Amino acid sequence: MKIIFTAVIILFITGYTKAQEKPLVQFSGIIYNIDSNVVVPYVTVTNRSKQNKTVSANFQGYFSFVANEGDTIVFSSVGYRREALVIPPDREDKSYTVIVKMKPEVVNLPMVTVLPWASVDEFTKEFMSLKFADDDLEIAKKNVTRSSLLAMAKNLPRDGQEMRGVNFQNNHIALTNKAMNMRMANPLLNPFAWGSFIQQIINGDKGKGNN
Questions:
Q1: Do residues 11 and 80 lie in contact, with contact meaning Cβ atoms separated by under 8 Å?
Q2: Which residues contact 86 (CB under 8 A, 6 or more apart)?
Q3: Average per-residue pLDDT in the chain?
Q4: Are 31 and 63 in contact (CB under 8 A)?
Q5: Cα dihedral sign for 178, 184, 186, 192?
Q6: Distance, CA of 186 to CA of 194 (rounded, Å)
Q7: What span, in angstroms and rounded, lies between the C-alpha atoms of 166 and 69?
Q8: Pairing mode of beta strands 53-56, 83-86
Q9: Of 3, 34, 70, 176, whose Cβ has the fewest other Cβ atoms within 10 Å?
Q10: pLDDT tens, 141-184?
């Protein structure tokens, strides 16, 4: 009696399971970008009704797999909004082909600032020892100091105006000292020249007395 009762229960469960089982469908399709009508490759296709079983479309946006009527299918890809559809029931040809169009989604990521310091303490240490750059006024003051001007005077060549002034000064000195001796000494400051001059005067007076 127990064996017969168990067999009846098994048959009842089997029949109920077959009655609840949905017909199989070959689900296929191609995925496009709704804005540009170009294929979207490698989209993830998830069957939510089959414990999130997933397949991937190929590089041409094509996919095909076996599902059941009434299954919920979700399409997802980075940079696109998720799309979902339900396979309609009572299909006579036991196949279902669709064209899925996905809309691009722009995701604005928060700004990330990369700092060269590993910690806040290291940043504080570097900030406290930071040397600020001189402003324009301070730089100008440093450029006109005596040491800076002397250093530039030693290295910079003379310009045209300066060379003209030097040549004019040299010509003036040459004209002023035209009557000087070869050693460029002024005879008025030379005692030997004065002695020679006085001797010439004495000799001149003697010559007049003889006459």
A1: no
A2: 70, 71, 72, 73
A3: 79
A4: yes
A5: negative
A6: 11
A7: 106
A8: unpaired
A9: 3
A10: 878 888 888 887 777 777 778 788 878 888 877 777 665 555 55
pLDDT above 90 coverage of the chain, percent: 33
> Is the CB of residue 42 less than 8 Å from the CB of residue 58?
yes
| Residue-level pLDDT at 177 | 64
- Please give the torsion angle defined by the CA atoms of residues 205, 206, 208 and 211, in that order, rounded to the nearest 10 degrees: 170
Mean pLDDT of 47-75: 94
Please tell me which of 64-73, 149-158, 187-196 the model is most confident about, judged by mean pLDDT.
Answer: 64-73
**Residues whose CB is less than 8 angstroms from the CB of residue 152 and which lie 6 or more positions away in sequence, other chains included:** none
Q: Which residue has the tokens 């040397």?
A: 131
DSSP, residue by residue, 25-57: EEEEEEEEETTT--B--S-EEEEGGGTTEEEE-
Task: State how far the Cα of 32 lies from the Cα of 37, in Å rounded to an integer.
Answer: 6
Q: What is the DSSP letter of 67?
A: E
Structural tokens at position 206:
């003697």
Q: What is the largest CA-CA distance in the chain?
A: 192
